[in-house]
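On clarity, I found the account of how folds are encoded harder to follow than it need be. For illustration, here is how one protein appears when written out as sequence plus structure tokens.
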Amino acid sequence: VLGTGVDLGAINVDSYVVAGLTDHIIPWESAYRSTQLLGGDSRFVLSTSGHIQALVNPPAAESRSSYRVTDEPPFDAEAWAQAAPTLPGSWWPDYDQWLAARSGDLKPAPKRLGGAGFKALAKAPGTYVHAS
């Protein structure tokens, strides 16, 4: 129906938004806007890399990477850039801590595949990977 839209503010789960400083596809300021559109609490992370490198940035003992992050993003992207400190290393450990704070207790993996009326069709990774 013309004139109807999706109210992103109605999404009330917390969001961890990652952007790349030199991303040529999604400018970081556009990604930052998500923090203002989504409901719930937002944590915005700006990696110092581009489109792919911003995400594929594994933690390493000797990393030349850095990132910027804040928990309470201001309305304006430029105000965020002025307030957000630069931290050394990969943003992945920060994400791990953020996610752990929102996750339940760790449980052991099931001893058998399938369960509760769902029979396992094959062992991992599955037969579909062999299809051509």
In short: The two ends are 41 Å apart (CA to CA). The mean pLDDT is 85. Residues 120 and 128 are 14 Å apart (CA to CA).
